[in-house]
């Protein structure tokens, strides 16, 4: 049985989008990350070294969002999910990239893409 660590509503400024003005001006993206992990060891030892440090996870996610530019948030979500799985304690992840300022000519609240990835050996 796995436990879940969730980071919700992480905001980072990036330059992702198909349109030139998105690449030039950028916009805020909001990221949600859910990790399936076994936290039994961390619970027993009460040691942060035995779990996924969500502060370091947030730093990694923000670095990716603010780093390389992608046309599609599908690509960004995939890159984030792959990076999350670099931690061998993560069994499965779901990463949602929200683009609340997407260039849509109609009233809307949010556009998002969720990438779900599972460790191949899990």
TrEMBL record:
Catalyzes the conversion of 7,8-dihydroneopterin to 6-hydroxymethyl-7,8-dihydropterin. GO terms for biological process: folic acid biosynthetic process; tetrahydrofolate biosynthetic process. Keywords: Folate biosynthesis, Lyase. This is 7,8-dihydroneopterin aldolase. The gene is folB. Belongs to the DHNA family. It catalyses: 7,8-dihydroneopterin = 6-hydroxymethyl-7,8-dihydropterin + glycolaldehyde. It comes from the Bacteria.
